[in-house]
Amino acid sequence: MKCNISRRVFLKGAGVAALAVASSAMLSGCSGDAVEEVVKKDVTVFFIYGGVKQNKTATVKVLKTDTTFNTALITPDKLPEGFKVAKQGEVAISADNTAEVEITVGTATKIVEVRFFVGQQQLPKTGTAEVAADATVVNASEIKMPDDYAKMYEITNGQPAIGTDQDGKLIVPEIEERERHGAYILGYTDGTFGPSRSMTRSEAAAIFARLLAEKNGDTISTAANTKFADIPAHAWYSGYVKYLSNNGITYGKSKTIFAPNDAITRAEFTTMAVRFFDVYGDGDAEIMEQFGGFNDVSSGYWAAEYIKYAALHGWINGYGDGSFHAEREINRAEVVTIVNRLLGREADEDYIADNLRKLNTFPDVTKRHWAYYAVMEAANAHTAVLGESESWSK
Question: Does the pLDDT value for residue 273 go beyond 70?
Fold first, then answer.
């Protein structure tokens, strides 16, 4: 018979205890259909990778009547180390008594630590990358790196970037730092450079204007008007002088006279170089020598502080007798030497030797000339790969 218990019977009890006794009595008197027990079965899971059955198996319980198996029941602890389920979902359970199911897993992976270097110096933060268990290289795009490092390394998607070291850690290789070095001085129409020739004030202005405009992304055109009465409209140097004047780098002999064709002195060029450096805001500011002063530059000399500043930073040198000769005209070889020092630029001697036919050369500046490499650096545009020394990539 069936056991039918009405709500009215339970409500007639005299209390909690009576209710419990009555309920027990009525249930014990019931016979017929029993409550069906939930029956489960064990399913043995085999893992397949690359068509090969792995040694480790897992056992999970499912309802006895189930004919499919949900891979979500495979928790990470049941998987072989380094494996993951390739595709989640329902799979069929085999019809025989073994109740086995095969689940294909994805590539075995490992999490590796990534160390970041600039040159030989290791940076303090680290990153991580999930790679195949047998991987020896990692795509840079897979690296989880600190945001401030990402800007530094500028890694392109899919670049094979790193390899495993003996500790199983990965080291990001040194990323080359590059910058464009434009040519800032030209030779003469007869093909010569004139290393011993003096430089005019307009030529000096052109050098610093080209460098600053290249950095700022500016284009300089000739000017119809400048504040100097002795600069003709649209003279080849008019735009350079105006550009430097607007940036506070160069001044005239007076408020209205620039004297563009006058030879520039060592003091005037040094002053212009220091003012340029202050505006340019870059270059090699290492103190390269101890400066004891020049015996012919008094503290009251108009350019004394500029000369001292340039000498302290190794941009200029005096003569063997300790003098500077501030009023002496500076020559073109001395100019490029100073500018290269100021900017931290140096020629790649090996590149020059291997690519001489591709470069601007001058018959009056041979390899035996003391300023040969300084002139080559100044007169040839190139991409500089920066490191302990500069190397060129044309």
Answer: yes
